[in-house]
Amino acid sequence: MSTDQTDSQYVKIFDTTLRDGEQSPGISLNAQEKLEIARQLERLGVDIIEAGFAISSPGEVEGIGLVAKHVRSCTIASLNRTQKGDIDASWAALQHAERPRFHVFIATSDLHMEHKLRMEPHAVVEATREAVAYARSKVEDVEFSCEDATRSRPEFMAEVVRAALAAGATTINIPDTVGYTTPDEYREILATLYANVPELHEATLSVHTHNDLGLATANSLAGVQAGARQIEVAVNGIGERAGNSALEEIVMLLRTRHAVFGMRTGVETREIARTSRLVSRLTGYPVQPNKAVVGRNAFAHEAGIHQDGVLKNRRTYEIMDAESIGLAHNELVLGKHSGRHALQKAYADMGYTVEGEDLKRAFARFKDIADRKKTVSMLDLEALLDDQSRDTSERFVLERLALRTATGESSQAEVTVREGDAVHTATGVGDGPIDAAFKALGEIVTTTATLREFNVNAVTGGQDALGDVRVVLEQNGHTFTGQAVAPDITEAAAQAYLRAAALAAAGIPSRTTNDTI
Ligand code: KIV
Ligand code: ZN
Q1: Which of the listed ranges 260-269, 440-449, 453-462 does the model predict with the highest average pLDDT?
Q2: pLDDT of the residue at 515
Q3: Out of 244, 246, 347, 390, which could bridge 352 as a Cys pair, Cβ 3.0 to 4.6 Å?
Q4: Is the pLDDT of residue 309 over 60?
Q5: How many domains is the chain built from?
């Protein structure tokens, strides 16, 4: 299949997991986590990564900058209002990118102009012209978006798009900001825009849809039918409110129904499942079991008649192969007698190169887990490697955790933590073992940070599943995120707490709690 981007059937995938996706309530990714996701998006083969909204905080500039420095084969974008300060912040973040893009937006609906922007329409046109020209003075690749486009007057939107194109915009995005439009209506809006602005044919038309009425994917498809050759998506469909169009849905839709739509993307679909798991783990947003393409049940068959049909011929009830999204069976790969080479080979089969010091650490960790858990699956190995990539600067190391807990009584925890050469011990009493452990740890790390979020996920099914815990602490308007994986949930929680506390002690926030667009 061709991935030639000049091909008229090629649809660019613009991934906004790290920007619109990160605007989902409760998600805050630090710079390292952004980089981890961006690297996976690069393996997935997206064309453009919108890495963030630079002006929103210094941490955001750092995160976008890190992605721009290390992810070289995708275009890296940063979002901007039509203000010079925004564009300067994006430039600070993107100046070392191989292919930088500025994404400039302003609202064009009467509702937003009057009540939110408090700007006259002519001022919106002028702001567009000035901001796009300023952005173009720094980079060649400038995208312009008419926010709330689907509720904008068509003639006025055409005037703004004309101004953006004249000032040098190379991509025009027509977002359905509030998830209001329908496929027929969206096709009509885009056809009218092409008729009103014929020079739009010289640029790339992009669509950006939200899922408030469950129409995000259908609307993105309608956009492509109307001529759009860029689709803006987020992994697992995360994003503002009900989310954005889901990457996995639109990519698999275009692939599965290629005979009908004739469109292609550059996405390596076998990386989809892994990307979905990584985003879910780092954002703390679980994927609903019946989610299209990446849900746990998307390839499960419950009814006897279905199972019978699938056993006779998978195509009776399956329109896609599980393998095509990278869902190899989660078979047992290793046990406690497996050696270092077997571990390295298992990782290599999963597409990871693990060697040297990393292999030594991974093997020690694997042995510890294999002693406590009968079998170690592919998903366990993936979670352990993720965990290892996170704990490079371990300031506080949990040496021992002892718990006493009984129904109807307060729990007690005793913890021993190593900090460099010093070893600290403390006790805590709380409502349940995790509360008790956090109280004890709080005595040692002496932080004033308070617990803002706590999420637990099981890496696999089964009683001996690894627990994956994410803790978000808040201190002076900043949040600090720690995550850890361990066979015991309380142990994972304690380690995640210590990681978040170490970031708080070092003043390395995930984001400022008053960050807003
Ligand atoms: O939904 C929207 O309108 C946006 C723009 C900033 C592109 O996210
Ligand atoms: Zn959006």
Answers
A1: 260-269
A2: 47
A3: 347
A4: yes
A5: 4
State if residue 105 touches ligand 1 by the CB under 6 angstroms criterion: yes
CA of 119 to the centre of ligand 1 (A): 18
Would you say residue 470 has pLDDT above 60? yes
Taking alpha carbons only, the member of 67, 68, 76, 21 closest to residue 48 is 76
Ligand nearest the Cα atom of residue 173: 1
Same domain, 343 and 424: no
- One domain, residues 105 and 252: yes
Q: Could you tell me if residue 33 is inside a domain?
A: yes
Look at residue 296 and tell me whether its pLDDT is greater than 90. Answer: no
**Mutation test of ligand 1: which of 80, 103, 145 has the most ligand atoms closer than 8 Å to its C-beta?**
145
Question: Model pTM greater than 0.90?
Answer: no
Q: Judge if 88 and 172 occupy the same domain.
A: yes
Q: Predicted confidence band at 1 (pLDDT cuts at 50, 70, 90)?
A: very low
Beta strands at 422-430 and 332-334: parallel, antiparallel or unpaired = unpaired
Does 164 map to a domain? yes
Same domain, 85 and 157: yes
Query: Is 39 among the domain residues?
Result: yes
User: What pLDDT does 516 receive?
Assistant: 43
22 Cα–ligand 2 center, Å:
11
CA distances from 8 to 4, 227, 264, 279 (A): 9, 10, 10, 31
Q: pLDDT digit string (tens) for 137-178?
A: 999 999 999 999 999 999 999 999 999 999 999 999 999 999
Ligand nearest to the CA of 147: 1
Give, in order, the Cα–Cα distances in Å from 481 to each of 61, 209, 234. Answer: 18, 29, 21
Name the residue among 459, 300, 294, 322 with its Cα closest to residue 378: 459
Residues spanned by the domain of 480 = 396-506
Q: pLDDT by residue (tens digit) across 363-378?
A: 999 998 988 887 888 8
CB contact at 8 A, 323 and 270: yes
Indicate if ligand 1 lies below 6 Å from the C-beta of 20: yes
Q: Rounded CA gap, 362 and 343, in Å?
A: 8
Q: Are residues 207 and 308 in the same domain?
A: no
Atom from ligand 1 closest to the CA of residue 23: 8
From 15, 19, 79, 189, the mutation candidate for ligand 1 (largest count of ligand atoms within 8 A of CB) is 79
Answer whether residue 516 is part of any domain.
Answer: no
Q: Within this chain, do residues 384 and 454 fall inside the same structural domain, yes or no? A: no
